[in-house]
Specification:
By secondary structure, the chain is mostly helical. The protein is built from ten helices and two strands; from the N terminus they run αββααααααααα.
C-alpha cells in the first residue's frame, strides 16, 4: 500500500491567518455564487461533494474485498462491494456533465478510466489469496490518490474555500474506511510495519479532525446528536483498531463500527449542508 493519502481537509479548505475559513465566510461565498448569472460555481460545489464521495468508495470497495478474503462477515462484504460499485458508477455518470476547466477535465478523464478498471477488477476478483488482496489494495489506493488530485484541481477551479465542517467531515468519512482497510491488511500480513504506521497516523488524524468539528460554532439538535453518535462509534472503533488481537471478533468490530461511523458521518454531512444553506437566507 502507498503512503497515507493526502488529507482532504488540506485540499478543501483555505487557511486564513486565524485558522480555517468560517461557516459565515462559506455562506457569503455561496450567496455571491447564487447571485451570479453563471451556474458553473454551483456545479463545481456539487462536483466536489461527489468526487470526495468517490474517494471514500475506493476504500469501501477495498474493505469489502478484505472482509471477503478474510471471511469477516462475508455476507455483508458482498453487499458492500455491490452497493459501492453501483454508487461509484452513478457518480461517475453524473460527473460527466460538469463543465470542467482543462486541468480538471483531463484529470477526470484519467479518474473515470482508472475507476472503471478498478470496478472491472473488483468484479473479476474472486480469489481468496492474500497476495491478490494486497495487489487489489494497491490498485484501490492508487486510484484514491488520483481521485484526491481531482478534488484539488476542482478546489483551485472553484476559487472559493469550502466550509471547514464539510471538509473535515468528508475526510472523516474516508478515514473510517481507510483505517479499516489498513487494519485488515495488517492482519493479513501484508507490509505489517507500514500498515501499522499508517493505521496509527490515521487514528491521530481522525481524533484531531473530530475535535475540530466538535468545537465548531455551527450547531443544532441534529448536528449535536450526530456528533454524539459518532463519538460513541469512534470510541469502539478506535479501541478495536489499537488491538493486537487477530481474532474474528476484533476484525468484525472494526468492520461494523467503520460502517456505522460512516453512516452517521453521511448524516452529519447532510445536516451541515442544510444548516449552511439556511445561513444564505
Amino acid at each position: 500500500m502507498q503512503k497515507q493519502r493526502r488529507n482532504l481537509l488540506t485540499l478543501l479548505t483555505t487557511l486564513t491567518p486565524f485558522g480555517f475559513v468560517s461557516s459565515s465566510s462559506w455562506a457569503q461565498n455561496a450567496k455571491t455564487a447564487a447571485a451570479s448569472p453563471s451556474s458553473l460555481t454551483l456545479g463545481l460545489h456539487a462536483a466536489v461533494t461527489k468526487v470526495t464521495r468517490l474517494s471514500v468508495l475506493t476504500d469501501r470497495i477495498g474493505r469489502g474485498h478484505a472482509q471477503r478474503v478474510l471471511e469477516v462477515l462475508p455476507k455483508r462484504s458482498g453487499k458492500i462491494i455491490a452497493e459501492s460499485s453501483q454508487e461509484a458508477r452513478k457518480l461517475l455518470n453524473e460527473l460527466v456533465s460538469v463543465n470542467y476547466a482543462a486541468p480538471s477535465k483531463a484529470q477526470f478523464g484519467k479518474v473515470s478510466k482508472d475507476y472503471e478498471l478498478l470496478l472491472q477488477s473488483s468484479e473479476r476478483f474472486t480469489s481468496t489469496e492474500k497476495t491478490d488482496l494486497a495487489k487489489f489494495g494497491h490498485q484501490a489506493d492508487n486510484l484514491g490518490g488520483e481521485v484526491d488530485k481531482l478534488v484539488e484541481f476542482l478546489i483551485k477551479e472553484l476559487g472559493k474555500p469550502v466550509a471547514q465542517v464539510l471538509s473535515a467531515t468528508a475526510d472523516l468519512q474516508r478515514l473510517t474506511q481507510h483505517l479499516a482497510v489498513h487494519f485488515l491488511l495488517a492482519h493479513v500480513g501484508t507490509e505489517i510495519k507500514e500498515q501499522q504506521k499508517l493505521l496509527f497516523e490515521g487514528i491521530d488524524e481522525f481524533n484531531h479532525q473530530f475535535k475540530a468539528i466538535q468545537a465548531a460554532a455551527l450547531k443544532n439538535s441534529q448536528i449535536e446528536q450526530s456528533l454524539q453518535l459518532i463519538g460513541n462509534q469512534w470510541f469502539l472503533m478506535s479501541q478495536s483498531l489499537k488491538s493486537s488481537e487477530k481474532d474474528a471478533i476484533t476484525m468484525e468490530n472494526v468492520c461494523t463500527t467503520s460502517e456505522r461511523t460512516l453512516e452517521v458521518l453521511n448524516e452529519l454531512y447532510a445536516h451541515y449542508e442544510t444548516a449552511l444553506k439556511s445561513l444564505i437566507g
